[in-house]
Amino acid sequence: MRVLLTPFSTAPHVYNVVPLAWALHVAGHEVRIAGHPDVTEKITGAGLTAVAVGDPLNIQDAIDEWPGDEFMAGLTDAVGLGLPEPTRTGQWLRMLVLGTISMYFCDDFPTGGHQRMVSELVDFAREWRPDLVLWDPVNLAGAVAAKASGAAHARLLFGHDLVGAMRLAFSAGPREDDLIREWLTTTLKRYDLTFDEEVILGQLTVDPMPSWMRIPLDLRSVPMRNLPYNGTAEVPEWLRVPASRPRVCLTLGVSQREHWGDNTLISDLVAAVAEHDVEVVATLNADQQATIGTVPPNVRMVDYVPLHALLPTCSAIIHHGGTGTYANAAVHGVPQLIIPVQLWDEQRIADAVVKRGAGLRIDAEELTLPSIKLALTRLLTTPSFRLGAAGIQDSLAATPAPSDIVPALERLAAGRR
Questions:
Q1: What is the secondary structure of 14-58 as a DSSP string?
Q2: Which Pfam families does this one have (predicted)?
Q3: How far apart are CA 207 and CA 163, in angstroms?
Q4: Whether pLDDT at 108 is above 80
C-alpha cells in the first residue's frame, strides 16, 4: 500500500514518525513524508522520501511575533494537568488553535498563512492516491488530504492525547465558539467535502504512550512502543571511553534548544550538578553555553550528542520533561530528574515518572542550588530509582513495536478500499 505521513513541520515531530515510517517501508509499503520545506532535510536525512509542500513555515518567526503572551498564558494554564472544566476547555482549545492549527488554516498567521500548504498537500494526495494517511494531531491538513483523496487515515500521536481529551470534553460540555470546526468546514468546502469529527480525532489513533501513562479516552486506538529517533548521529571518540565516575546527562531537548528555550536556569543547573563527584555531559547550544561563566572541570559541554548513544553510559539524566527525552531515558532504564516546562504534556510525564518510582520532579519556581543537589544525590544513591527505571524499561519492551502494528494499519487501509 501507499502511506503518506504528515507530521507537524518541526524536527521533534518529524523524528516522531521515522520509526513507524521505516517499519512500513521494511514491510514492503511505499512511504512518503510531506511537510513544509523547513523539514525536508530532516526527512531525507532519515533515509526517507520527502514531499515539500507550501512555503517555509518559519516557526521561530511565528513564536516570536504572534500570539505571544496570550498563547503561552493559555498553554501554561493548569489545563494541561488533567481534564478541565468545560469553560477552561474552550479556552485551551482556542489557544491550541491560535498557536498551532491556525498555521495551516488562518490567513492572518504572521508568516503569511499556509493555505498553499494545505492545497499542495491535497493536490499531491489526489495525484499519488495513498491508501493510508498518518497525520500529526496538530497538523489537521493531513486529515483534510486524506478525505480529499479517499484514503483511510489515523492520528499518530507524539505524546499524551491532549487534543483528543480536550475535544471530547469540549463536545460533551456547553458548546462555545468551535473555531476548529469553523476553519475545517471552510477548508473542506473547497474540495466539496463536509466536516465530521474524524477530521479532528481520526479513524484510528496510534498511541506511543505506555498504558500506565495514557489518558483513558473512548477512542479507537492501537498502542505502539515509543522507539525514539534522534536524527543523524555519530558517536564521538570521548564517548567510546568508559566513564571513570557516574555520568549525568543534562539536556533541554530539541524543542527547548531550537524554539522555546529559557536559558535563565542553565547556569544554576550546571553549578549544582558540578558539585557532585560525577561527570556531567551538558548538551547545550552556543546561546545556552554563553549563559555559563566558568565551566566546572567535571562538566563537558557539547552542542549535541545522540541520546541513544549517551544514555546507556549514564547513571541519571536531568531534563525538561519533553516526550522525546523522556522516551530515550525510559528505553535505556535511566533514572530521571525532571524540571518540567509547561508546553504540552511535560507535567504529566514528570508526575508519571515520579509515580513509577523512576525519578524526581522539581518545578522551576522551586529550583535552587540546594534543591538540585539534594535531588541528584537521592537519584544517584537510592537504588529504588534504578529499579523503577528498569520497570519502565521492561513495560516498554512488552509494548508492540512499530513493526507489530503494521498489520492493524493494513487492515484499516483495506477496509477503506
A1: HHHHHHHHHHHHHTT-EEEEEE-GGGHHHHHHTT--EEE-SS---
A2: EryCIII-like_C, EryCIII-like_N
A3: 12
A4: no
Domain of residue 216, residue span: 2-225+400-416
CA pair distance 184, 4, nearest whole angstrom: 20
150 Ramachandran zone, left/alpha/beta (phi>0; psi -120 to 50):
left
Host H or E run for residue 387: helix 383-397
User: pLDDT at position 268, please?
Assistant: 72
Q: What is the grid cell recorded at 92?
A: 485551551
pTM reported for the whole predicted model: 0.88
- CATH label of the domain that carries residue 405: 3.40.50.2000
Provide the grid cell at 215: 489518558
The predicted-structure confidence for 174-206, as pLDDT tens digits, reads as follows 666 777 788 889 889 999 999 999 999 999 999
Contact status, residue 340 vs residue 349, Cβ threshold 8 Å: yes
Residues 6+ apart with CB under 8 A from 117: 36, 53, 54, 55, 57, 104, 141
Name the grid cell of 226.
Answer: 515509543
Q: Measured between alpha carbons, how far is 74 from 163 in angstroms, rounded to an integer?
A: 14
12 burial level (CB within 10 Å; 0-12, 13-18, 19+): buried
Residue 232 lies in a domain: no
The pairing of beta strand 279-283 with beta strand 247-251: parallel
> Sign (positive/negative) of CA torsion 359, 362, 368, 370?
negative
> pLDDT tens for residues 27-60?
999 999 999 999 999 999 999 999 999 988 776 6
Tell me, yes or no, whether 168 and 302 share the same domain. no
Q: How many domains does the chain have?
A: 2
* Mean per-residue pLDDT, 379-388: 97
Tell me how far apart the alpha carbons of residues 117 and 125 are, in angstroms, rounded to a whole number: 12
